[in-house]
Amino acid sequence: xxxxxxxxxPGAPLALLILFALPQARATARALVPVAPLPALLAAxxxxxxxxxxxxxxxxxxxxxxxxxxxxxxxFSALLWALAGWGAExxxxxxxxxxxxxxxxxxxxxxxxxxxxxxDLGSFYAFFAMMSLASWGLVLHGGGAAQVxxxxxxxxxxxxxxxxxxxxLAMGAFATGTYMLADLAQPGVPPLALALxxxxxxxxxxxVPLHLWxxxxxSAAPAPASAVLSGAMLKAGLFGLMTVLPLGAVVxxxxxxxxxxxxxAGLLIAPLLGLVQxxxxxxxxxxxxxxxxxxxxxxxVGLAAPEAWPAIAVALVLLAAHHAFAKAALFLGVPVVWxxxxxxxxxxxxxxxxxxxxxxxxxxxxSGGLAKDAIKTAVAVGPGAWAFWLxxxxxxxxxxxxxxxxxxxxxxxxxxxxAEVPRGVALPFAVAVGLGVAGLAxxxxxxxxxxxxxxxxxxxxxxxxxxxxxxxxxxxLARVRLVPPAPGGLLAAFEQVPVPAPVLALPAPERRGRALxxxxxxxxxxxxxxxxxxxLGxxxxxxLAAVMLPEPAGSAxxxxxxxxPAAAPAQSPAAGx
Amino acid sequence: xxxxxxxxxxxxxxYHLAGAALVGIALYRGATSSDxxxxxxxxNVLSVGIAAVFVAAANRGAGAVPDPVPHxxxxxxxxxxxxxxxxxxxxxxxIDLTGAKSDD
Amino acid sequence: xIVFDLMLAAAILVAGWSALxxxxxxxxxxxxxxxxxxxxxxxxxxxxxDVALAEAAIGSGLTGALMLRAxxxxxxxxxxxxxxxxxxxxxxxxxGLAGGLAVAVMDLPGxxxxxxxxxxxxxxxxxxxxxxxxxxxxxxxxxxxxxMAVLLAALVLVAALGPRGTPRPARLGPLYTPFLRIMAPLxxxxxxxxxxxxATAPGGAFxxxxxxxxxxLALYFGGALRPAAVPAGPLWALCAAxxxxxxxxxxxxxxxxxxLLAYPDGADKIWILAIExxxxxxxxxxxxxxxxxxxxxxxxA
Amino acid sequence: MTDTSLLVLLxxxxxxxxxxxxxxxxxxxxxGTVASAGLAAHLALSVHASGPASIAIGGWAAPLGxxxxxxxxxxxxxxxxxxxxxxxxxxxxxxxxxxxxxxxDPRRARMRMGFWPLWLSTLAALNGLYLSGDLFNLYVTxxxxxxxxxxxxxxxxxxxxxxxxxxxxxxxxxxxxxLLLGVALAYAAAGRVDLGVLPLLADSAAGRIAIALIVxxxxxxxxxxxxxxWMPAAHSSAAPAASAILSALxxxxxxxxxxxxxxxxxxxxxxxxWGLICLGAGGMAWGSxxxxxxxxxxxxxxxxxxxxxxxxxxAISVAGDPLTGTAWQxxxxxMLSHALAKAAMFLAVGxxxxxxxxxxxxxxxxxxxxxxxxxxxxxxxxxxxxGLPPTAGFVGKWVLIDxxxxxxxxxxxxxxxxxxxxxxxxxxxxxxxxxxxGPHIAPGARRPPWRAGDVAAIGLAFTALFxxxxSAAPLALLNGPLLS
Lengths: 577, 104, 301, 484
Description:
The complex is a heterotetramer of chains A (577), B (104), C (301) and D (484).
Chain A: H1 8-21, H2 26-32, H3 38-45, E1 53-55, E2 62-64, H4 68-91, H5 98-117, H6 121-140, H7 145-176, H8 191-205, H9 213-220, H10 223-244, H11 253-275, H12 280-304, H13 309-339, H14 344-361, H15 367-380, H16 384-414, H17 426-442, H18 459-478, H19 490-494, H20 509-521, H21 523-548, H22 563-566, H23 572-576
Antiparallel strand pairs in A: 1-2
Chain B: H1 11-32, H2 36-58, H3 68-101
Helix pairs in contact in B: 1-2, 2-3
Chain D: H1 2-20, H2 25-50, E1 53-56, E2 67-70, H3 72-96, H4 106-131, H5 135-154, H6 159-190, H7 205-221, H8 231-237, H9 240-263, H10 270-293, H11 297-318, H12 328-356, H13 372-386, H14 392-407, H15 410-436, H16 452-469, H17 472-479
Antiparallel strand pairs in D: 1-2
Keywords (chain A): Cell membrane, Membrane, Transmembrane, Transmembrane helix
Domain NADH:quinone oxidoreductase/Mrp antiporter transmembrane (chain A): 118-378
Transmembrane segments (chain A): 6-22, 29-49, 69-88, 100-118, 124-141, 153-180, 192-214, 226-249, 255-276, 283-305, 311-340, 347-366, 386-413, 425-446, 458-478, 527-549
């Protein structure tokens, strides 16, 4: 087997990006987008992990390597990106701006695949930022009011996350003295640094209350983009947290409890808000929040009970991979539903979608059932309190997911046909369903023995169905009509009418233009004089400061020979605070 | 020998202080005048004030040979300043001409 | 004599203030001319005759002429409408700064003498005996080279931006012509003398260039010289000649001796005089063109 | 080392040639720029290989004579100037042509004949400034730089440009004179004016006032808040190539001098450092607010320069002891990234304005014409300016924050991050419009063909982008020994 150089993992999509710059080569480049993640997939599936790579001349010294966890994440991410590229090619076949979409997709792909193999802070942050910012283009792609609004919220959260991440990584790098990502998990890193990094990742992961961007972005983006947003990019947050948190090494019950509280909030809020949505993609997005919260719960347990972490880690990877495949299949199914007429074709499509949905609910025999099992067994190792709380949490997750799935299917079943959606989207969807069913067998996930199915595993679905039937009956009897709010949950209350104004809205220019006119007229003279005054004031103030304020003791240099001692007070501004 | 009440007052110090005062005057007018020509004049006065500091510092008191290097600095400064003044005046005239005609 | 110095300093301050606060332009410029002459006088008092010469000829004379030309072309000034608060703030700050400077110069640490012994030690090797010329053209010739670049840059700016259509001065009539016949050759003679003198006594390229410019200005006002009628190329070449010679000499010296601007041993005086000759011509021409303006390359309609 | 003298004299002689032989100005200009870039590359390589070098002009050693000194910092600045210069030259050639044509627009001819001598003078002055080791020599160099820069501002000849040029020249002259006053006081206090005088100035009141005056002069030249009053008008009313030079290169001269002052031990007074930190932070805030409120694209970019200068000044004043820390390198890297990105940005804005016929931000996505290439260049430059990876701005900010954390200066870290967020805010006003199109744009909006000006902007923007990837090269230069 040929050893695949690791730089090809982010390098292949990047190279394709360069091809897009040449107008003549665009058709070829477009066709190649689905195979751009191929090197990543090969690297992840190789029986022997590719050798680490050190590029000292790049950034702050780039180190690429593939860890065991990274290989799993890389495998399902690469598969998902390939599917998304293929799906986008077929969905946007008539879109005049599809090249822009492809470029953004490739950039985000480069970032996502690259961060999974990056081992040093500089390149990790670079890839992470590349992924986050390029996704802005994916969210904005449709160009409508909803997209503009979603884009605005998305970029605000993304930048917030970037800044927190950057600050945290910089502090961590200083504390550890190295630029290696894995060193952040060593003891001795200031908690503030870890907290900042965690905030950056939790925003990406969509943990409540940092989730506000997520449903908006998922419902605004085209379906293939939603598939990778939910399937691959949210997982990047999880991957980051698993890499940098000192899991399994440090007991941090407070942090664990905080994380668990956020997770439980997510588990509760996701179905509540998701059920009232009118857009199936928004409903699916809320279900992602619920699932990611479950993973955050696993992290919380790992922080509080280090002895349980090895088992939890295995379960989390399994859960992530399963969710990635299932959710991607569901998102890719949405445009297929739009393209098929109401009747048996649609029933067929919905039937196919039911397979990943069942996996997501965690029915026995599906990948979801396996993952749920795994996490249950893993947590049993930890302290009793955690295990005690986990069973209801898992049940709530399953119940919530089941309700959300039923809601999504109801909406999909009634969705009108959209003539503009090409029929070609069905093929990627079929492959995605196949992956959703059998995906875990294809990629190197940690194995877990399946437990025999018991009837109680079906309880969440049954309860959800009963609840749905009851609600339907109540609605019919009371003769009320459910008016779904705009996607965005709470945020929708703040901005009912999205305006097509610029991002980070600023006052309209016309009025200010008029207001400027009189100011402009008296500008030159006043400017010159206040400028003169500023010069005078600056010179006088600095001179005064230089003369009046005494030098700190020991810094004055009476012998005045060498410059070295005179430069010593340089450190004092820092010491001053 | 001198009946003046400040015995250590030397010509050097007097012109030093005059230079300081000229700097103050020039900067004050630069900050309070809107007339282009006055501001150009103020900059010229400022440079004379600086030259006074240089030349006074070069002087080593009566009888001693003064330091030639600051003299060279002031000579250079005078020529540089006349060049910049010419450029400033050309600009000011042009602004005045175009200003009278139109405001584009 | 201290009393004379005090009175002179006070007169300088009064002249300076009146130049900056006169309500009309002519008064302001007249104040500035007087100010320049008084300052030149004070330089003489401080044993700086080279500087006094240059200040009188260039700093006061030529600048005053430039100002007068500009004042004639510009609209009269509008009355200042500066808020009283700004005035007060400016006055306060200016007093503070001037006071700070005064305090600083009053308790200067005892004279630190750095340059004097160095100049005295090296003067013998510099090729000239006037220390100021030695500094300008040998010890710190790089400054002088860049200073010529400033002159040329200003000329480029004036040529590109000067007011369109330089008004031609009226001929000053027949009475003026005999004066010109004496003036023009005399200025060339005096400039040559100053140039030669600069090696040993106060004088040198800048003073000589200023005198040359004075003679050229006389010709210009007499109507005998019309730079606007001359093609721009040769005029530019004349202005650039000095600095081109200087830069070429700098590089040639580097080729000959291995060090930039290090003249070959024993030939310092010849090199310096050659450079100064070029500089004098260029300074005279450049100062004149700064005054009269010049058309650039024929691009102007 | 013949490099050092030729780096100044060669562009200068080319400027003379371009002035005298005005018809071939562009040819002379191109030759001078390219030759100077070659010399700059050679200088950088030789400094990297064999360490810093200095020559005493005329064989007269400092303090009496003037030395030209080329260490890693100076070589990096000179290389930066050459790199940006090449990009700007491509734009100038594209806009105004190489040689006169038979029937020619007089404005085009005037710009071509005016631009090249002024640019070459700017180049010579900047190189001289980076190499100079003498305060009075720096004053003279600043005057050449100031005059050439004013010429570039006024080149377009509009009333706004002339007015801005006048204010610029007055402010520049005032700054030079403050510097000269500082030099005079330094002479009065210590008897010499080479850069070696700086550490001696802390001992007397006159010396400290001298430093304060030099810093105010430099601040005025660098458009440090609140002395930036002349700058937005000057930078926004010049022609695109001129704006790029002014904003990317000319202010760097003054900032470099401020950094030199620090490295030579001149910023000794602690109060002065705190003052500069406050001014830098103020500049970041005020520049950002004005950029957020600007209604014209060029003005937005000019105000962003105010904010970025604030950041660089902040980096310079907190940089710490150059002998023990490496935080001062952040300032150099930030200057490098700002030069590349800002030049690209001004060129891109120039192209956008040329295609749309205006540069109102509100109208960017209201026309059915999309200057895609220029918008793309703007977006890339914005990424570098914000400091996102992998750009040079990112590496600069990284080194800065690393150094700040090393000193425990947390409030300053917060300031830098706030400044970053603000820069995202004002730049996204433009980038978002470029990215998403607008409600009034038909799907088949007309795209103008690429021009050479676009190539210059995109080239510079990508250089800024990849300079971060290759930041080992500038850091290797900066890690070499310094001359002081």
